[in-house]
Design a protein that fits this description.
By secondary structure, the protein is an alpha/beta fold. It has 10 helices and 14 strands.
Amino acid sequence: MNIFITGSSGFVGTHLKEYLLKNYNYSLFTPLSQELDLSDEKAVDKYILENNIDIIIHTANRGGGRDTADMKSITEYNLRIFFNIAKHEKNVKRIISFGSGAEYGKHKPIIEAKEEDYLDALPLDEYGFYKSIASRYIEKSENIIQLRIFGAYGEYENYRYKFISNAIVKNLLHMPITINKNVFFDYIYVDDLVRMIDFFIHNDAKEKIYNVTTGSKIDLITLAELVNSTSDFQSDIKVLNDGLNNEYTSNNQRILKELGNFQFTSHQNAIAKMRCYFKENLDKLEIEMIKEDPYLKIIDNMWKKE
């Protein structure tokens, strides 16, 4: 089987590539951006057709995080690369695309959201707006499914601003763990996410859109306490603002019906594994940026309309 993974050097793409190489004898096509410009329609056409691609797993996009909060005009770019891929749904066995909880509009609480709830209101930010448009297209497509991620975490993620990795690194450095404002999220460990992707590579989907989540909420203070529980050093946990920020959680009953008896990795076990990884790579990390914590200052406004 020939599998084309866009964004293969990104967080999800890297883990998926490693997983497939370990578990299957497939031909993986994982070009870097300098090797294939996904915004170039003719180049994408040529690449897919000449390599006889069977499955496309489209993880590439721009925006969606604290490190890209100031990025402008991402809607056109992301939609362009999405439709350059989507036009080939009749030429391949399946296209797997990825959505985001941002489709529901993160300017308001998102509480145990079902897949169809994204139709209730449009997001105010560009990233969520782009993902929402893609989902509306996929609902009417013949051969594309959308796996909607709320919060995936794990090794290789950007520890400079991703909360769980950032907290682990701060604990390793014997620093306090700082939280702007507590909030409930629906986090999934990346190893569980790639197992879900594996299912949809090899099985026909009954629906078009799935929340690929645990369906269980956990708050940042509890996650920080779990980080401390895996360590001999206990970081101070500092919360800068009282109260709770907008909840960001989902209902995952739709995907559980497909997967059956799916076992999730506990957050404590996942954090313990991640701690080993970051400890082994501590000398390669940007310690000064961790100390400066530049993204903490913008988290409150990143999903609000300017």
